[in-house]
Amino acid sequence: MQSIPMTVLGAKALEAELLKLKDVERPRIVEDIATARAHGDLKENAEYHAAKEEQSFCEGRIKEIESKLSCMQVIDVSRLNQDGRCVFGTTITLMNIDDDNEITYQIVGEDEADIALNKISCHSPIAAALMGNEEGDEVTVKAPAGDIQYEILEVQYL
């Protein structure tokens, strides 16, 4: 099975979600099913069917998280060789060469990626273009709208 790279914070967040699903959500759903069963006929009991559907979703998510945790490779960015290269977990400040706009991204695992927080997947086109490059390098990102030229201004190991 292929290992799944993840930062320390991402691993903790996944473990916290698993704990919440098992200790809070699962018992609540069981109570909801019991309450709905007490209402009688199950064929036309919308509460019962909704609770069973929620239980199915919850159990599926628990299995998915457990599978990911079993294949996870936690990478502590602070312990990496800090030689200035863009690698998994680093935070990179880029400047768009065409319009001089600056943006900062952190390269993370797929489950941690959140563009609103400037966290991009290590499998994204931007991350693929950045990997292995150093501060001062210029990289070309192949985007659907066309190629975008960036200069790497800073690489941080946070």
Helix-strand pattern: EHHEEEEHEE
- What structural class results from the helix and strand content? alpha/beta
**Helical percentage:** 25-40%
Percent in strands: 25-35%
Uncertain regions spanning at least 5 consecutive residues: none
How many β-strand stretches? 7
What strand order characterises the main sheet?
5-4-3-7-6
Q: How many strands, what sense, and barrel or not for the largest sheet? A: 5 strands, mixed
Mean pLDDT: 91
Rg estimate, integer Å: 22 Å
Distance between the termini: 29 Å
Instruction: Give the overall shape.
Output: elongated
How many DSSP H or I helices? 3
Provide tags for this entry.
3 helices, alpha/beta, 7 strands, 158 residues, five-stranded mixed β-sheet
Strand and helix layout:
Layout: E1 4-7, H1 8-38, H2 46-71, E2 72-75, E3 91-96, E4 102-108, E5 119-121, H3 125-130, E6 138-143, E7 146-156
Parallel strand pairs: 1-2, 4-5
Antiparallel strand pairs: 3-4, 3-7, 6-7
Description:
With 158 residues, the protein is an alpha/beta fold. It contains three helices and seven strands. The protein has helices at residues 8-38, 46-71, 125-130; strands at 4-7, 72-75, 91-96, 102-108, 119-121, 138-143, 146-156. The strands form two sheets. A five-stranded mixed β-sheet has the order 5-4-3-7-6. A hairpin with a 2-residue loop joins β6 (138-143) and β7 (146-156). α1 runs antiparallel to α2 (46-71). It is elongated. The two termini are 29 Å apart. The mean pLDDT is 91.
